[in-house]
Design brief:
The protein is α+β, with helices and mostly antiparallel strands and 130 residues long. It has helices at 50-68, 89-96; strands at residues 2-5, 9-12, 25-28, 31-37, 76-83, 106-111, 121-128. The protein contains two helices and seven strands.
């Protein structure tokens, strides 16, 4: 669902992100900038089960958001990972890489002092739209 558009930029949202103070994604030309995603379930709560479960749900949320806006995980060129505890890096990474079987996007990762909703991980990405 398109929120607002200028000639070169489209600000995109969805019912899943309604009411939040940012766009779910912004399309500039053939690039899609996806806002950070958390491991939230349909109720809006962060899934239980630790970093692996949260990473899996985060990646599923990214996959769904990309598909809503004309891209796929295969088209992700850059990801940024924010983690509440960098000691969970290896466990997060084991799940993350399974979502990119054909290529690994460029990536940055950093520890954060705190993430929204008490999440352990947040991931944002840039993808090329077909």
């Amino acid at each position: 669902m398109e929120h607002s558009t200028t000639p070169d930029v489209a600000y995109l949202t969805s019912p899943e992100m309604a009411g939040l103070p940012f766009s779910e994604a912004v399309r500039v030309g053939n690039l899609l900038f996806l806002s950070g995603q958390l491991g939230r379930d349909a109720s809006g709560r962060v899934v239980p089960g630790g970093i692996a479960a949260e990473t899996r749900q985060t990646m599923e949320n990214i996959k769904a958001a990309l598909e809503r806006h004309g891209a796929t995980l295969d088209r992700v060129v850059k990801a940024t990972v924010f983690m509440a505890d960098m000691d969970e890096w290896a466990e997060m990474n084991c799940v993350y890489v399974t979502y990119f079987p054909n290529h690994l996007p460029a990536r940055s990762a950093l520890g954060a002092n705190g993430l929204a909703l008490g999440a352990r991980v947040e991931i944002e990405c840039i993808a090329v739209v077909r």
